[in-house]
Amino acid sequence: MIHGMERVFKYASCIFFCVLCFICHAQEQYTTPTKKYKFTVYGGVGPNFYFNNLVVAKDYVREVNYQFVTRFMWEPEHLLALGFETGYNRLYSIKENPSASSEVKITNALVPIQLVISMKFLKDYYGNFTMGQSVLLNNVSVSNNGNKNKTNASNVSLGDFGLAVGYRKFFNTRFYLGSELKGYYSSKLNDKNIGILLMSGYRF
After folding, report:
1. Residue 103 and residue 14 share a domain
2. In the chain, how many H helices and how many E strands?
3. 140-194: per-residue pLDDT in tens?
4. Residue 16: is its pLDDT beyond 60?
5. What pLDDT is stored for residue 147 in this prediction?
């Protein structure tokens, strides 16, 4: 009787073990794989410094300004990534008082429309090269004895490019936070600046 019970217990244990292995194998086959997000939208903002190359009113130039960028990237599981970048980059501003009753304000900025080539290195660092064109925005405001006149003009700079190096860190599977050192060159008037950006990104 005892030997019969032991035999039944052994058979039951073997059947239970086989069923357990089958269930585990089935769960491995039907488990939903972790989704890999290949696209990322970035946004950044920060101060920049303009390398003053003006001849007229050079001493009145405000060289510290600001910029913000928006970047859409395709980021597969490789070292290289491709994307598109735009934003607003204020190059410099001027404020001058030719007389006690008059004031002149000038701001020069650009809107980049650029292709981005990005490469990852080390673990959380990357480098970007951007190239394309920019829309130059020139705004002039003249006040004289309380009367204001404004003139807005725009132009296109075709041979512009930028270089950047940055650091980014995942806070979960979708969100980035980081910083970036970014230089920009506009060929139309030989304008150059460099900025420090705080960046955030969202993968989808």
Report:
1. no
2. 1, 9
3. 999 887 788 999 999 999 999 999 999 999 888 899 999 999 999 999 999 999 9
4. no
5. 85
Tell me how far apart the alpha carbons of residues 148 and 142 are, in angstroms, rounded to a whole number.
Answer: 6
Tokens of 130: 């951007």
Among all chains, which residue has been given the structure tokens 């970007």?
A: 128
**How many structural domains does the chain have?**
2
Same domain, 24 and 92: no
171: helix, coil or strand?
Answer: coil
For residues 62-78, one letter each, b for 16 or more C-beta atoms within 10 angstroms of the residue's C-beta and e for the rest, the string is: eeebebbbebebebeee
Q: Parallel, antiparallel, or unpaired: how do β-strands 175-186 and 191-203 relate? A: antiparallel
DSSP 25: H
CA 5 from centre of chain: 71
Asked whether 199 and 71 are in contact (CB, 8 A), the reply is: no
Q: What are the residues whose beta carbons fall under 8 Å from the beta carbon of 96, sequence distance 6 or more?
A: 57, 60, 103, 104
Contacts of 63 (CB under 8 A, 6+ apart): 49, 50, 51, 52, 92
CB 43 within 8 Å of CB 194:
no
Q: For residue 11, what are the domain limits?
A: 1-31
Burial annotation 146-167 (CB, 10 A radius, 16+ → b, else e): eeeeeeeeeeebeebbbebebe
Closest CA to 191 of 66, 116, 92: 92
51 secondary structure, DSSP code: -
120 in Cβ contact with 155 (< 8 Å): no
